[in-house]
Amino acid sequence: xxxxxxxxxxNQGKIACITGANAGIGLSTAYYFASKGYSLILLAxxxxxxxxxxxxxxxxxxxxxxxxxxxxxxxxxxxKAFSSLPEAWNKIDFLLNNAGKAKGFAPFQEGNLAHWxxxxxxxxxxxxxxxxxxxxxxxxxxxxxxxxxxxIAGKQTYPNGNVYCASxxxxxxxxxxxxxxxxxHNIRVASIxxxxxxxxxxxxxxxxxxxxxxxxxxxxxxxxxxxxxxxIYFMASRPNHVNIQDxxxxxxxxxxxTIVHRNGRVE
Length: 267
Ligand code: 8X3
Prior knowledge:
Blueprint: E1 15-19, H1 24-35, E2 39-44, H2 47-60, E3 65-69, H3 75-83, E4 94-97, H4 113-141, E5 144-149, H5 162-182, E6 187-194, E7 197-198, H6 202-206, H7 211-214, E8 223-224, H8 225-236, E9 246-249
Parallel strand pairs: 1-2, 1-4, 2-3, 4-5, 5-6, 6-9, 7-8
This protein binds 2-hydroxyethylsulfonic acid.
2-hydroxyethylsulfonic acid binds at residues 151-153, 195-196, 202, 257.
């Protein structure tokens, strides 16, 4: 799933922190930033998988990696992890708030409360907890860049998307709020909102492991996690006076959240 990039040490000494680093866009971004010489702080819930990810990345790129196993929904764990970072790791340059999920796809009147709590706790509250813990470190450094993973769902509400769409609309609002409050601290804040992205766990999680329902990418050419990682790196690698604030990125066959031209894998 990850295009192999040659190593370039252009960001030596810089630290990028990525949440939800075990899969999909987070994983692809971890590889991408590693290839560009960043040291990585990788956060995820599954310890063994995270260790395997770090092992694979290190086998390809000579960078340092710090692993933090936690659930971003746990505010105590999040604040403890960031307030007790080793000295060598507490000057974070870049944060990708990627941890997030969709659970369920039903009309609001039939929605599952547990699914809603899980999405709000992860997509909104988790992002708030991590940002609140990382921002003071960036303020100490008088520099930083935060990219929040939005979604086309946060820009265009679609049928059955209800609470997921609301959670991603909140990500966009939080991005704007953080940007307004942090610009005087020389901290850039931006969001990226993709449409359909394959080679992620998104559809399988949304449809609770139902492979048939999750088979939503085979009859058109969606974005890949690599496409998003590449764009995130482009945003992050602009000069410090440039902030690409808000990116909507869609596959060519998907002009809106609800329209997909399912006429095969057009290149
Ligand atoms: C993922 C994209 O359109 O399935 O957030 O909501 S979509």
